[in-house]
Amino acid sequence: MLGVIKQRRDVVPRIQHYYQEIVPMYSLDDFKSHFRLSRHSFQTLLVQMEKAPTFNRANGPSVNTEKELLMFLWYVGNLECFRSMADRFGVSKGSFHASVKRTSSALVQDIMAEVIQWPRSNAKLRETSVGYSQLSELQGVIGSIDGSHIAIKAPSKHAPAYYNRKQFHSLVLLACCDANNCFTYAWTGNPGSTHDATVLRTSDLFQQAENLIPPGFYLLGDSAFPLKRWLITPFRNFGNLTRQQNHFNTTHAKARVAIERTFGLLKCRFRRLLRFEASDMNIIVDTILSACILHNICVKDGDDMFDDMVDDNCFDNSGRVARQCDDLSGIRLRQELIQQLQAN
């Protein structure tokens, strides 16, 4: 009878030399297909990460910045489990988890403010507005805003709060973008059952809106949001809209579609945002924000996605439930915009 050969429990088989030998052999297309960034965008990010104080603490253990960044890109760009990803890079599951936490935290704390920027100067406001005027006839638009659900597994605590109207558990990502599909604001962490209007009210954008959005400029949002002096929403259509109001809604939608496309591109490139299996909410929040950061780096670097990286299932164009909390200043501005469209 043949003896049974038992493997030692402390010996875990792993893929050998993937980072050291296989990755350097990838062609430019293969590298981008696997890590969702071009080599050029990766090198741009690597230079920034090597200077990140959160990532490279003087009193902490030295880290291989390139390897850890590749590990994070693999994590955010794919839907593999932690054990499989750890085996690929020749580290333990715990080490891979710690690396993802460290890298995402560094991206948010040290890189985010440089990459996701609100148009504050007059020149930047005008530049952003001109970009939107090329999408529609509306003048003064400096961003479109919307919320998107990021699927997560049911949390161990307060799970019903995270169960959204689409019947899955999620966090809400609230974001604004410019006409080039570049994020200018990102906020996440609210449970999936939270209405978009409520998420907006909990954000620092809402608290600072009067200072961030000067008169003459405004954001575009769908009917889930309140109508404000600085946030213009479409007319609610109950079948009684005038021709001018319908024209306004159509023009409004042409510009607002920028944020829907931006969310679609984000989720198609970084597939982890389609489903999180992690249970650490801090990691999930930092990973979502990190994906927005990486998205902006790609946009600014001209790092477009391959056709086979785009999936229509990533795009979410579902309707919203309206809120009755419009401001008189917003109503007046919307009427002025209708008159401007009639004059053109």
Summarize the structure.
With 344 residues, this protein is α/β, with parallel strands linked by helices. 46% of the residues lie in helices and 10% in strands.
Description:
There is one protein chain. The protein is an alpha/beta fold and 344 residues long. It has helices at 18-22, 28-35, 39-50, 65-77, 82-88, 93-115, 122-133, 196-202, 204-212, 243-269, 281-300, 328-343, and strands spanning 141-151, 170-177, 183-191, 218-220, 231-232. A five-stranded mixed β-sheet has the order 3-2-1-4-5, sandwiched between helices. A hairpin with a 5-residue loop joins strand 2 and strand 3 (183-191). Helix 4 packs across helix 6 and helix 5 packs across helix 6 (93-115). The model is unreliable at 1-7 and 317-324 (pLDDT under 50).
Keywords:
single chain; about 350 residues; alpha/beta; 2 domains; five-stranded mixed sheet; 12 helices; 5 strands; disordered N terminus
* Oligomeric state of shown chains: single chain
Low-confidence stretches: 1-7, 317-324
Q: What is the CA-atom radius of gyration, in angstroms?
A: 23 Å
Strand composition percent: 5-15%
The main sheet comes to: 5 strands, mixed
Give the overall form. elongated
Q: Determine the structural class based on helices, strands and strand pairing.
A: alpha/beta
Q: Approximately how much helix is present in the residues?
A: 40-55%
Mean pLDDT: 88
